[in-house]
Specification:
Layout (H helix, E strand, L loop, with lengths): L14 E2 L2 H4 L12 E9 L3 H12 L4 E4 L15 E2 L7 H8 L1 H24 L7 E8 L3 H16 L5 E3 L11 E9 L2 H14 L3 E3 L6 E4 L3 E4 L4 E9 L15 E12 L9 E4 L6 E7 L2 E7 L3 E2 L6 H15 L5 E12 L5 E3 L9 E5 L5 H16 L7 H4 L30 E6 L2 E7 L5 E5 L10 E3 L4 E3 L6 E3 L4 E3 L12
Parallel strand pairs: 1-17, 2-3, 2-11, 3-8, 5-13, 11-19
Antiparallel strand pairs: 4-7, 5-7, 6-7, 9-10, 10-11, 12-15, 12-16, 12-17, 13-14, 14-15, 18-19, 20-21, 21-22, 23-24, 24-25, 25-26
Helix pairs in contact: 2-6, 2-8, 3-4, 3-5, 4-8
The structure holds FE2/S2 (inorganic) cluster.
Amino acid sequence: MQSWDAVWMVNLPGNRGSCWVATAGRTGYPLLDSSIHAETVVVGGGIVGLTTALRLREAGRSVILVEALEIGKQVTGRSTAKITTQHALIYRHLIDTCGVPTARSYAEANSAGAELIKDWIKEHAIACDLERKNAYTYATTAEGHGEIIAEAEAARQVGLQAEVLDRAPLPFETAGALCFADQAQFNPAQYLVGLARAVANRGGRIFEKSRAILIGEASRWRVVTAHGTVHAENVVVATNMTVKSPVGMANRTQPRCHTAMAFRVGDPSVIDGMFIGIDDPTHSIRTGRDGDGPLLVVLGPKFNTGQDGNVAARFVDLEEWSRKNLPVGDVAWGWCNEDYDTADRVPYVGEPDPENAPGFHIATGFNAWGISNGTAAGMMIADVIRGGSSPWHNLYNPTRPYPKDFHKNGDSQSIVQSTNDIRAGEAGVIQRGDEKIAVRRDADGSLHAVSATCTHKGCTVTWNNADCTWDCPCHGSIFASDGTVIHGPARQPLIPVDL
Ligand code: FES
């Protein structure tokens, strides 16, 4: 564990938050404040939930969607939003570990997801900065170059077009690249706002600031929020990590974070394409824009959520790497995004227990490729609810076997001896008897305390000194500095404590 002396509150440059979320615009859907019924209730207004909802409305099925916070402002809105079937090195891995049919099914599901996004943007006239771009996976080592060649062969084997280049079109040295031509990028938060509008225009009902605090059985299913209840024949838990499931998903997955920064850039055409590196430390690169002009968005290597006591230092490293390798100007935005990895690198989607919990659908574990996989997940869930089957049922089967040692709980990285060790602008976890208390000190010296015990399964949270959140090192719940839930699986806030 890092010593607390090394953990400082860095004054990070730029605005905190995602450049996509900042430019998404307001939605303003009402709070759920009554007891209502629909055939399907969707929990979560990200890409899975909204795709499911729109697909169901297109088929004339009744649907209600409840979002804990605001549409488009959560995990999807913090992603890099590449609409591509190129997921770094995946097809060689899937062929070697699961066989060609599974790898082909993965390619088909993600191709279908990518196509649906582009079709819907056109059909629903969603202004979300959609741009056709080539996707590149690049290597910086000779070993990586070999992996690029193997991946290209695997991709062709499952029906995808892949070209190997001697180098990536980047302003630094690379040892080769895999190119998937004619992929796309967009602003994911604007896309979700547009999808929500399309759902509402077709008679779907959407409620915001309506966190599901209970999901349970009624005549079939009920989702209870602070002020209302939805009864439904089907429930779709589309909350990135499931906040409820008849078969637990938390131990089948590992929560991961990435640091992301968006820089001002003079001439955005110097970077033409979407890029992901495969050699450590890996970086992901794409262009974008906010209200003030073009941006270059760069992601750093992943790390386990809540298992790093100095996330701010990762931003310092990412800025340094970006300035060394890319033509970047001032930092405009910086944020952490999160997702869940699975052991076989394929998401879990579907009904975990169709016999005992029919109509209960989940989607999780997108391995940071949730745009095309998440859309495919929504398509699959909606198709099953409509009474059909899905060709991706086996691919995404949420109860397929998994290695029991894949998931690793972590310890809090913020333990200090006493509040005296917490300087202005910092935070730490102190022990008082049997109780662990998460304490932060404001710039004026005043102390604020909540329980450090995560309300999901009781692990001790870690202070994220970049986003100023309390992050759980076990299953990735994220709490605001005042303890309110930002990201599950926790559904209840950290309990306020008197010091
Ligand atoms: Fe599971 Fe915190 S998220 S214990």
